[in-house]
Design a protein that fits this description.
By secondary structure, the protein is an alpha+beta fold. The protein has one domain. The protein has two helices and six strands, in the order αββββββα. Strands 1-4-5-6 form a four-stranded antiparallel beta sheet. It has a two-stranded antiparallel ribbon with strand order 2-3. A hairpin with a 2-residue loop joins β4 and β5. The radius of gyration is 15 Å and the shape is globular.
Length: about 130
């Protein structure tokens, strides 16, 4: 999965968390790839004093903004802004066949009880790789 695909996925997940009215309550159409069932190991929340480069457990790189906090739980990195009303989750999904499978696997890892199929998708040309 390219860096752009991961970014598009992370932004889609952020949109899904922030605007649930775009999604209906139904079972996902694709079967998500298996993610390790081992108990996720959570790290203590880390607050960034300045914009800092970080990596996910699988090696995807991103920059955590100053003042945000970061917690790693299994294949997920949860980023929280200084305001407590939202968060962003980046999920590593190795072995996903396509973006639909990656989204289904990420939702299964993040909130298994949430059954929200993607209703809005905007294709984007590949940039920088």
């Amino acid at each position: 999965m390219s860096r752009l695909s991961r970014l598009v996925f992370a932004l889609s997940l952020c949109l899904a968390v922030s605007a649930p009215r775009l999604f209906a309550q139904a079972a996902p159409a694709t079967q998500p790839p298996a993610i390790s069932k081992a108990a996720p190991i959570a790290t203590a929340a880390e607050r960034a004093a300045a914009d800092s480069p970080r990596t996910t457990p699988a090696g995807a790189t991103f920059t955590i903004p100053s003042g945000w906090s970061m917690t790693t739980r299994g294949p997920m990195v949860v980023l929280e802004p200084p305001e407590p009303d939202s968060h962003l989750v980046i999920v590593d999904v190795p072995g996903a066949k396509d973006s639909d499978a990656a989204i289904a696997a990420a939702w299964a890892a993040y909130r298994p009880e949430a059954k929200r199929p993607l209703k809005l998708m905007q294709p984007q040309a590949a940039l920088n790789g």
